[in-house]
């Protein structure tokens, strides 16, 4: 049974590249959402094994979405990896205090994205082993 990951990002091209990459390089099943609210709804209905979420989104940003999810028993156990272009130390500390599994940086390398996620979550995958 393939891993299932939910990608939450307001940028269509980022969602598309990440989804195609994870499906092609790791064989994972990928769901997508274009906002924090849509992502929460999809996480509740689909129960993915992990969530890759953009930090900067209009309306409800990544950190706000993470905090809301942590208050929901049905999805609070799902590990979240934040995807951000912000690399300053103060931002990294703020993200670390959220209790996320990892912070990955944009632009990401499509060929190593699955391996980065697998490593952060301690998953064994063909992509990570190869």
Q: Which SSEs are present, and which pair or pack?
A:
Elements: E1 4-8, H1 12-26, E2 29-33, H2 36-46, E3 50-54, H3 62-70, E4 80-84, H4 89-96, E5 102-105, H5 113-121, H6 126-129
Parallel strand pairs: 1-2, 1-3, 3-4, 4-5
Helix pairs in contact: 2-3
Characterise this structure:
The modification 4-aspartylphosphate is found at residue 54. It holds the Pfam family Response_reg. Keywords: Phosphoprotein. Residues 4-121 form the Response regulatory domain. This is Response regulator. It is a single chain. With 130 residues, the protein is α/β, with parallel strands linked by helices. The protein has one domain: Rossmann fold (3-Layer(aba) Sandwich), CATH 3.40.50. Helix content is 43%, strand content 18%. Helix 2 runs parallel beside helix 3 (62-70). It starts with a strand and ends with a helix.
What's the short version?
This protein is of the alpha/beta class. It is 43% helix and 18% strand. It has one domain: Rossmann fold, CATH 3.40.50.
Query: Structurally, how many domains make up the residues?
Result: 1
Coarse structural class: alpha/beta
User: What order do the SSEs take from the amino end to the carboxyl end, as H and E?
Assistant: EHEHEHEHEHH
Shape: globular
Report the CATH superfamily.
Answer: Response regulator
**CATH class call:** Alpha Beta
Low-confidence stretches: 126-130
Largest sheet, described in full? Answer: 5 strands, parallel
Helix content: 40-55%
Distance between the termini: 19 Å
Order of strands across the widest beta sheet? 2-1-3-4-5
CATH architecture title: 3-Layer(aba) Sandwich
- Return the CATH topology: Rossmann fold
- What share of the residues does DSSP label as strand, in percent? 15-25%
Radius of gyration from CA coordinates: 13 Å
- Which whole number gives the mean pLDDT? 90
Number-wise, the strands total 5
Organism: Terriglobus aquaticus
Keywords: Phosphoprotein
Pfam family, one: Response_reg
Modified residues (4-aspartylphosphate): 54
């Amino acid at each position: 049974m393939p891993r299932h990951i939910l990608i939450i990002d307001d940028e269509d091209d980022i969602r598309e590249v990440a989804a195609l990459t994870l499906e092609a390089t790791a064989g994972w099943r990928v769901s997508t959402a274009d906002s924090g609210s849509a992502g929460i709804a999809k996480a509740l209905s689909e129960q993915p094994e992990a969530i890759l979420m953009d930090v900067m989104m209009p309306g409800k940003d990544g950190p706000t979405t993470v905090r809301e999810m942590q208050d929901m028993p049905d999805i609070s156990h799902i590990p979240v990896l934040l995807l951000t272009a912000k690399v300053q130390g103060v931002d990294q500390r703020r993200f670390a205090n959220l209790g996320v599994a990892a912070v990955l940086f944009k632009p990401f390398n499509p060929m190593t994205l699955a391996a980065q996620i697998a490593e952060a979550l301690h998953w064994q995958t063909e992509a990570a082993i190869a």
